[in-house]
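We examine the record.

___
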Amino acid sequence: MEPKKKLIRITTVPISLKVLLRQQLRFMSAHFEVIGVSSPGKTLEEVADQEGIRTVPVTMTRSITPVNDLKGLWQLYRLLRKERPQIVHTHTPKAGLLGMMAGRLARIPIRMHTVAGLPLMESTGFRKKILEFTERLTYSCATKVYPNSRNLASFIIKNRYCSPVKLKVLGDGSSNGIDMDFFQLGEDMESSAAELRRKLNITNSQFVFLFVGRLVKDKGIEELIEAFTRLRQSYSDVKLLLVGPFEQELDPLSPKVKTIIEQDKDVVHVGFQQDIRCYLAISHALAFPSYREGFPNVPMQAGCFHLPSIVTDINGCNEIIEHGKNGLIIPAKNADALHNAMLALMTDKSLYLSLKANARKMILDRYEQNKFWKILLSEYQDQLNKHEILP
């Protein structure tokens, strides 16, 4: 029997392997010897159990840390020289930079990098120049680059970060598709949701807007708080449910907005949650006013629970959501437009029910998870065939 070829997947922090790529590595392990690489910790150990794969810790940071980055690069190079995989596939900016450089130095034949958002989109000045340089360096070291949305691919081409020949969008976009069986409302979920509603002091009569993600400025949180505060002045039966952590050290919110989140009784902040399904189940609509994304999972997950989404007209979001069909699309950084969209969903019942009726089906038709995994597997096999790699 022919031995399995070796595939190494690298992310900066292990939560990306655990959550963003959930079950994908287990699927691939039927076809490859899969090794997961990320920063050390309990979460990485959990990935090994969850996915049934071997994991290797390599310390990486999400910020610009030249000394630590050189150490990480050296560790990755040594690992790749030892393991000799046929494919190394990276996700997230720092893992992409270090993994692709190490892969090229170690002469790994197939070096694939998935782009799932670009922090440089909201950067300026010298920092933006550094980020642009690192993106170009990452792509130059890769043999193939996979933006996870068509608009993101267009942005990369427009800014000449990479040759169009090197770029490819898999399927309709995404990095992992969506598990439609996992993200659905069943009897057990309804019972848990009712208990959660009681715990959070949310009544059945209240309209709940949900946000899921990091509570930082470039996720549009300041506009969301402003829009919600105005909405609540006219409508008392409304709640804003925030699921995600503060990251004040990376992209801080203003003290005023942070205080409102912490003290306003109608703004319910529950922090990071490993499983968001119950929070989706007690909500009526997703408010996702991000400034930049690659191909976000949250609007897909919300759609699976029949939630209409309000999203900004940015990469990924404007591909998952079609305005007037399964949600509303508004300009980024515009609290007035966000307020008006939230008001429309609350007050226009026919609009709300129409969007709600389309939400799950539109996600199922384009982003079902097994479909995406098979497309990615086919891509791996195509790359192996092109390079004529023997076991």
